[in-house]
């Protein structure tokens, strides 16, 4: 493979631009500008739940609630009024009251 001496001298003498040294500072400045405040990060709460697990949990909740509803004793009006005996002849006492002045 032939080597070009002029190209080799050019490559040996090449230095990176000075602005590349400030790359870390620029990246940190951009990171700080985009980052939300401490309190906003605390207010946001995320929980990642896989979709099959969420669907399975929902189905378990649905089936268990349907089972509980079917097991409840449905009371009728007669059941609720058991033991209640109406008064055969009510006696009312009417009194006269005067309005305060």
What does this structure look like?
The protein is mainly α and 101 residues long. It has a domain at 25-60. It contains five helices and no strands. The protein has helices at 5-12, 23-34, 38-43, 51-71, 77-80.
Helix and strand sequence: HHHHH
Strand count? 0
**H/I helix tally:** 5
Shape: elongated
Layout of strands and helices, then pairs:
Elements: H1 5-12, H2 23-34, H3 38-43, H4 51-71, H5 77-80
Structure, briefly:
This protein is 50% helix and 0% strand.
Which descriptors apply to this entry?
101 residues, mainly alpha, 5 helices, 50% helix, elongated
